[in-house]
Amino acid sequence: MTSETPSLGGSDLPPDQSVVSTLGDDSSNRWYLGLDVGTTGISAALLDRLTETVYPIYWLSDSQEGDRIFRLPSRVHLHRKSGETEVLQGFKPYLSWAIPHHFGEDYAPCPMLEVSPTQKLFLGTFKQALQLLLSTISPQGGGDNINSQDGDLTLPKNYQSAANGLTDQEFKTALDSLAGVVVGCPSQASHAYGFNLRETILAAGLVNSPSQIWMVEDAIATWLNESESPTDEPTLIIDAGAATTELMVIGISQDHDLTYADCFGVSVTYGGYDVNLDIICQFCAENMIDWDGSYLVLPTPGTSPRTHRDRLQQKLILSALIDAIESQKPSLQAGKNVTISLQGQEVKVTSNELQRRVLVPFVQNLNRELNNLISKVGVSPVGIKRAICRGGNGSWSVLSQWLRQKLPNATMISITDPESWCNYAIAKGLARIPLFPELLNYSSQQYGDYFLLSELLRVFGDLPLSIPEVMTRLEERGVNTRCCKSQILAILKGQLPPGFIPSELDTPLIVPISKHPEIDIINQGAIFYQDVDSSYFVNLERSEMCLQYLDKLSREYHQVLTEPLAIVQL
């Protein structure tokens, strides 16, 4: 399990107003869509800003005989040109690894992902799979299929969407006049993830401009769904999902109206899928059921480098083991002992052993992350007055027991019932964001990592620059460096933005890139170097290659990577 430095909202400053337009209060800015893109499914809700009413969106299919579903499963069928059909699912994490692109006819599209021993796909295919799901709520309606790099994409069923509380005509009118989309994201989502989500929303036809799309942390949406007012008591939110666990502390300062600067979050890359893997490793590996793990490094329960988990997931994705564990999850979460039968062998998983071998290590790691977070925020556990826990991975009793001990003065709110957390709770909170625009982090969306990299490359010449000189030159180019100083310093110190050059070192799922001159030159070493007097200089050849690479990426998409995003201010 890995986590990054907590994103402390207190370090955020107002964005550069010169590139931010402001919406008026007329009726053309009435309707907003809250969009929850999860690992297992998507959900959505519409906000009528004039009445402050939220309308959950549901789907109907031909085979459901009228039953409404408020969360559309993230399952898409890929029909290969060979005639084979594969199921794509659980692909949300892939979108954070890179921006899919093409180098030209002489090179394979990049990056390719080996998601299973028999399944090698272009990352752009997963982005198009999400586009197909989102098209079911598009004003243009859901298309029957999308022709992708790897074959034709179709949905398992023919879905039609509607909104609970709106007539069909009202629903259509709302979608036709959407002022914007608010989409959820992890606390430390990569720039590539936000870029890919925006492009997918645009490709699905939900809105026409990237400036109409706002990214908001899922934990903030959870809090808004459970809170009537943004002036509330100190609260801890735990969003325990399938791929990540989000921790956020909100409302510590009570002397002013709550803003994004009062939201402090950290993202832990361990979720329900990882619990499944740990159960397999702790209870099934020794019986050698359905797989040979002799060459794999088995993850340490509750933690472990991401590469080990990705490699194991890759090996097991076609195995019946994961489905067998998932089917027993409700019983295990209810504290029951279960027996897993597979290929004539039986494995018993007892509640006590599961807790000792898998769940306690998970909670111990959460405890360390929470200690680090509240230490940076400057609050004690006894100062937290409320704890909200949502997500399927938050149903384990050991988690609630830990929270009661850790936060003795907090009221516990659990949103873990499948009929509750799996529908539109997050989407509803996201839809309410336009009512509380002060909770938006404009600057991080306006100044993406790739844009800042391009600006840094342009301000350097043959001579080295000190950090104050770098900041001055960026400001002369119109960059509000107060908003993004930490991002700038990270790039100068050699940290290319995540996913800028997709690498098998990031995850074993990425297939090594076929030789390409630009990539080869960029990968030869660092872009920026520090001199003996702490000044920085740039490698001019690699700098030029980076700029050409960014320009080529921009040509394929609606967003321009070398310009700030003119995000509309609510």
Structure commentary:
With 570 residues, this protein is of the alpha+beta class. Among the domains are: 13-217, no CATH class; 448-555, no CATH class. 33% of the residues lie in helices and 21% in strands. The protein contains 17 helices and 23 strands. Strands 2, 3, 4, 5, 12, 13 and 14 form a 7-stranded mixed beta sheet that branches. It has a 6-stranded mixed beta sheet with strand order 1-17-16-15-20-21, with helices on both faces. A hairpin with a 5-residue loop joins strand 22 (528-530) and strand 23. Helix 5 crosses helix 7. It is globular. It starts with 6 loop residues before the first strand and ends in a 15-residue tail after the last helix.
Quick overview:
The chain is of the alpha+beta class. Among the domains are: 13-217, no CATH class; 448-555, no CATH class.
Task: For this entry, give a set of tags.
single chain; 570 residues; alpha+beta; 7-stranded mixed β-sheet; 6-stranded mixed β-sheet; 23 strands; 33% helix; 21% strand; globular; disordered N terminus
Poorly predicted ranges (pLDDT <50, ≥5 residues)?
1-25, 418-422
Name the helicity range. 25-40%
End-to-end separation in angstroms reads 36 Å
Number of strands: 23
Q: Give the overall average pLDDT.
A: 86
The geometry reads as: globular
State which percent range the strand residues make up: 15-25%
Question: Structural class of the helix and strand makeup?
Answer: alpha+beta
Q: State Rg.
A: 24 Å
Which helices and strands, and how do they pair?
Elements: E1 7-8, E2 31-37, E3 41-48, E4 53-61, E5 72-73, E6 75-79, E7 85-89, E8 112-116, E9 119-122, H1 123-134, E10 145-148, E11 151-154, E12 159-163, H2 168-176, E13 178-185, H3 191-203, E14 213-217, H4 218-226, E15 235-240, E16 245-250, E17 263-268, H5 272-284, H6 306-316, H7 320-333, E18 338-342, E19 345-349, H8 351-377, E20 386-390, H9 397-406, E21 411-415, H10 418-421, H11 425-431, H12 442-446, H13 449-459, H14 467-476, H15 481-492, H16 517-522, E22 528-530, E23 536-538, H17 540-555
Region (Disordered): 1-20
InterPro entries: ATPase_NBD
